[in-house]
Amino acid sequence: MLPIIDAHHHIWDLAANRHPWLQEEPPIPFRYGDTRALRRNYLPADLRRDAARQNVIATVYMEAEHDPADPLRETRWVHEVAAREGLPNAMAGAAFLDRADAAEVIRAQAAMPLVRSLRHKPKSVARAGDYDPAHRIPGSLRCPAWRAGYRHLADSGLHFELQTPWWHLPDALELARDFPGTLIILNHLGLPADRSAEGLAAWREAMARLAKAPNLRVKLSGCCVPGRRWTPELQAPVVLEAIRLFGAERCMVASNFPVDGLLASYDEIMDGMRAIIAGLPEADQRRILAGTAAETYRIAL
């Protein structure tokens, strides 16, 4: 079984840390539905149990929307866990790019040994039909204050983790071109939840344009469809199209666990990914399963 680097997962201890999206009532609206099933501790032992069959050789922690008042506290906690448990091997921290302390937080995150990238989910519109590139929504990819904070990433050497729906990918392409020194890692395939012929065609067009920017990588993850179980048949069209557009050298698998555990087991996701890419050359499979993530997050194999 070829080795895997899980390039995007979470851990949390709800007794030790505060995650408003998980703990507050009522639950926030979420693309997969009710999040109450996630209100339990999820620690390295739980991830290792879920991934026991998969030959996972390293992992990358993704910030889990910890208390926004202190994004560095989450980073310090993850370092303590990694020192004790042996994972994660790298991480993406949080920074709020439109806040006055953005530059200070970015510098502090960059000084942490495991931090390779940062995430701040930009504001977006809920539907493709509502997207208007002329609108500069506060906190969005086109927001001047947000972009002013983003500018500091280039000096820090950190990558940016972008989670936004595909209809905002024209903004992402502009961002990539305006700041070519910062690597953007698109989370969750641009969230292609609409699997109608029209929805897939629009997603494909947006991804094809984005692929023209060389400073882009794509995570083959987080592509669950609400109300439907994760299957290779459901996911192959978006996974294989992303690989075709970006190439194996710019694509990496990830579990998004435990969040995607709402609709799939760890084995269903990773066995499914292996099945989807089984027809590719072994060198490409190795890149997608581990090589791209190792290179991107500077993980020694």
UniProtKB/TrEMBL annotation:
InterPro entries on file: Amidohydro-rel (IPR006680), Metal_Hydrolase (IPR032466), Metallo-dep_Lactonases (IPR052350)
Cite the Gene3D superfamilies for this sequence. Answer: Metal-dependent hydrolases (3.20.20.140)
Tell me where in this chain the Amidohydrolase-related domain is found. Answer: 5-299
Q: Which residues form a coiled coil?
A: none
- Molecular function in Gene Ontology: hydrolase activity
The cross-references to Pfam families, in alphabetical order and at most eight, read: Amidohydro_2
The UniProt similarity line reads: Belongs to the metallo-dependent hydrolases superfamily.
User: Which protein are we looking at?
Assistant: Amidohydrolase family protein
Q: Which organism is it from?
A: Roseicella aerolata
